[in-house]
Amino acid sequence: MTSATVLGVLGALVVMVTLFEMLRRRRLREKYALLWFLIAVTALLAAVVPGLLLAITDLLGIALPLNLALFVGILVLFLMTLQHSSDLGRLEERSRTLAEEVAVLRLEVEQRRKEQQAERDAPAEDE
Amino acid sequence: MSTSGPRILVIVPAWNEEESVGATVREITAANPGIEVLVVDDGSVDRTAERAENAGALVCRLPFNLGVGGAMRAGYRYALRHGYGVTVQIDADGQHDPAYLTEMVAALDHSDIVIGARFARDGDPYRVRGPRRWAMVLLAAVLSRIAGTRLTDVTSGYRVANRRATMIFAMHYPAEYLGDTVESLVIAIRSGCKVAQLPVDMRPRAAGQASASPVRAVIYLSRAVVALGLALVRRWPATYDEGVEHQPQVVGAGVDAS
């Protein structure tokens, strides 16, 4: 076993254990966990079977296996960040909608309270 | 309550406008007796809400600052739930003269949205120059084309909407800067609303200053182009609008937007 293999396997294992622990403590939603788990499995595979990366590199006509690994890594990170931006936008929109609802409801509650107050006060004044 | 016709709600989005909001509310009610005013306090840190309440307005307090778009959508939702037939948007800074209101509401007989517009006639005292002016001209040209009528001031925050347009706005009023005016018009036109304008004179702001540096003007121009471009290519209704329940149809309500 080369040191590169050991490093790759260790890295992938650390990611998987962390994922498991975070899921167990409910610190991570399943949909994100699945994504990270797939990435960890791919890294593990690439570390254990070095021939796989070499074969794909040859197939695509790329000079260095490292180039392919870096390219794929950056692409995956980019896509995940994009996904997070989109999630963030949706969350913002939801919190905005909630804020608007809360503001309208608060006004309605205050109006209702004033109406009830007026109803209570009105008979007292008549008698 | 107004004596005849639909109930009218004036929505005033206000963010840290304690200097002018009271006077604005009083002026609106003085010029239009019986009209109801809803000030939407957009997360102000000053006494905007208190001043508005003292002036006799209903006050809706947003828990944090959402921008004009958020404030207006909250107002439109309130109007829809409480059965108002006509909604009016007026800025809190005193730029808009409420004396035009009657005329604008009357113009709803022939359209769904009426914009109180600057630059609509010769001798208009309101002047804008440089990139900000180019942005306004560009936006006006494109929107006039898709609306099929001449519009000179599409970024005006002075407008009147009937129930049909209010319903569309209550569901799809955009939050983004410039989106609130430009994009909302595009949405309304795409949903089949008829837009018209009425020439009005706008006054200098009662308090505070509109930003006028050249850099800001250029930024304004680019944002205007982006907002317009996006508004034109987007699909409506937007996919972000989950969580907005379909409003119950009240008697006399217009056609649903979708």
TrEMBL record, chain A:
TM region(s), chain numbering: 6-23, 35-56, 62-82
Q: Which Pfam families match?
A: DUF2304
Keywords, ordered alphabetically: Membrane, Transmembrane, Transmembrane helix
Q: Does the keyword Transmembrane apply?
A: yes
- Tree of life domain: Bacteria
Q: Sorted alphabetically, which InterPro entries does this protein's record hold?
A: DUF2304
Protein name, as recorded: DUF2304 domain-containing protein
Answer whether the UniProt record assigns the keyword Membrane to this protein. yes
Automatic annotation (TrEMBL), chain B:
Full protein name: Glycosyl transferase family 2
- CDD domains registered for this protein in UniProt: DPM_DPG-synthase_like
One Pfam family in the UniProt entry:
Glycos_transf_2
The record's section on InterPro entries has: Glyco_trans_2-like (IPR001173), Glycosyltransferase_2 (IPR050256), Nucleotide-diphossugar_trans (IPR029044)
Keyword hit for Transmembrane: no
Its taxonomic path starts at: Bacteria, Bacillati, Actinomycetota, Actinomycetes, Propionibacteriales
PANTHER family according to UniProt? RFBJ PROTEIN, UNDECAPRENYL-PHOSPHATE 4-DEOXY-4-FORMAMIDO-L-ARABINOSE TRANSFERASE-RELATED
What one GO molecular function would you report for this record? transferase activity
Keywords recorded for this protein, A-Z: Transferase
What family does this belong to?
A: Belongs to the glycosyltransferase 2 family.
Q: Where is the Glycosyltransferase 2-like domain?
A: 10-164
